[in-house]
Amino acid sequence: MQKSNLLDLIGHAEMEKEIQETVSEIIESQEIQNIHAEREVELDEKELRRYIDIVIKEVKKSKSTT
């Protein structure tokens, strides 16, 4: 019976450790999502058009070099 109790304790401790790790990962993921939400930037139309122009130029440039 003592071996059974020991195995139960070890199994319980391992399950608890896994649960703590999972909870920590979830909390970390939530914190990362919150950081991204805080950094969200709204571009006005002029900035957006400028950015799109830059991307289009880069794409054309990369196509011409390949």
SSE map:
Blueprint: H1 2-39, H2 45-65
List keywords for this structure.
66 residues, mainly alpha, 2 helices, 0% strand, elongated
Structure overview:
The protein has helices at residues 2-39, 45-65. With 66 residues, the chain is mainly α. It has one domain.
Strand content: under 5%
Largest sheet: none
CA-CA gap between termini: 72 Å
Overall mean pLDDT stands at 84
User: Percent range for helical residues?
Assistant: over 70%
> Which residues form runs of ≥5 with pLDDT under 50?
none
Please tell me how large the radius of gyration is.
26 Å
What is the string of SSEs from the N terminus onward? HH
- Number of distinct helices: 2
Summary, kept brief:
The protein has one domain (2-65). It contains two helices and no strands. The protein is mainly α and 66 residues long.
